[in-house]
Amino acid sequence: MEIPVIRDILEESNARARENRELFDRHGVFVVNMMSSPGSGKTSILMKTIPLLRQQGVSCAVIEGDITTSIDSQRLQPLGIPVVQANTEPFGGDCHVGSHLVQGALKYLDLHAIKLLFIENIGNLVCPAEFYLGEDCKVVVLSLTEGEDKPLKYPLMFRECRLCLLSKIDLSPYLDIKIGELQSNIYSVNGKMEIIPLSAKSGDGISIWVDWLLSQMNRKT
Amino acid sequence: MEIPVIRDILEESNARARENRELFDRHGVFVVNMMSSPGSGKTSILMKTIPLLRQQGVSCAVIEGDITTSIDSQRLQPLGIPVVQANTEPFGGDCHVGSHLVQGALKYLDLHAIKLLFIENIGNLVCPAEFYLGEDCKVVVLSLTEGEDKPLKYPLMFRECRLCLLSKIDLSPYLDIKIGELQSNIYSVNGKMEIIPLSAKSGDGISIWVDWLLSQMNRKT
Questions:
Q1: What ipTM, to 2 d.p.?
Q2: In this prediction, what percent of chain A has a pLDDT beyond 70?
Q3: Class of the CATH-defined domain B15-216
Q4: Full-model pTM
Q5: Do A69 and B149 touch (CB under 8 A)?
Q6: Which of A39, A95, A175 lies closest to B150 in CB terms?
Q7: Are A141 and A45 in contact (CB under 8 A)?
Q8: Distances (CA, A) of B144 to A122, B47, B117, B182
Q9: How far is CA A143 from CA A81, A151, A175, A204, B188, in A?
């Protein structure tokens, strides 16, 4: 008699992620998994970032993770790039983008025409950090409005990411945030984290983040 | 031969929550489950709220949910009230406070001496909304910095809560947020939501929120 085996959910997730990775490698697509709390500015940052990348000859696409709406995809429409909305509601309202969802989204993208793919994850500083989607690197966006202590309170997220974008720096004159303390807290959970302060509103720091992306892509090829 | 039954996780969770509820009822404790994104200001709001409640003769306590630190409990220490730190890391780093965790925390509280218990949930706008802990009401804190679209993107949270505290209103002159649109979005997912704008920094709105809590407690008795 055969013994029924329920495959470990993480094993299944990683199998899909490795299939995604194989596709990305075959087409030479660099993939960035962007994560953050709700409302930290991921979409606003992409809206400022992608036109600068295009000026550098880098064709972009975005997989927009969300539980239930397509608000962020609509915001990206004016950029004229391929965007796929990936909602988790049909999958039980998951609180993170899963590798199966990315796999489903890839059917709608022509990977031959894409050099850089952003996966904008669901706004959540906990669960998305646990899952490999096949990406080249994970980036966390942390708004200055969220306080100094978040790296300590959500350590897995800050351990998993290669880069932290400190967003909304235009608001720093109006906040009590101690940026030095915030940076120390980041380094205390991830000593090799790179940090780029920026503001989608003022545009400050966006070109530094674009250069960082280009250097990561070049380092790979 | 006996058939092994794995109890549904939600059934188990609700069983613990009902036990908590029974304890609260027996001691006449009103319980508020406060939820939000990371960094929306839950702890800062409690620091301003609890002294005003004490002036009204309401003795408070807090169960501080967190994945791994006791930062928020330490912040509340100067209030001189009972605080129990409830970390999910020993339970696998859960992204929400569970009813079993509340049950564990209650062993450290003298419920005879408490009229109002706050459960400060883990900063997460998704998963905490799914779980009943035995509370009287759920309250969501939404910072103005998070944008107008959050009620649409995290509808379960806004459907489950009775009150939405719009926090950090001191920052509104420096944000592009359309508060009317934000309110419409809240009402579109929950037509009976009550909304109180406030700022822990300036103190604006805190007394309205205190009055709201007192009215909820009075309505019950």
A1: 0.85
A2: 96
A3: alpha beta
A4: 0.90
A5: yes
A6: A39
A7: yes
A8: 19, 19, 26, 9
A9: 26, 12, 11, 14, 27
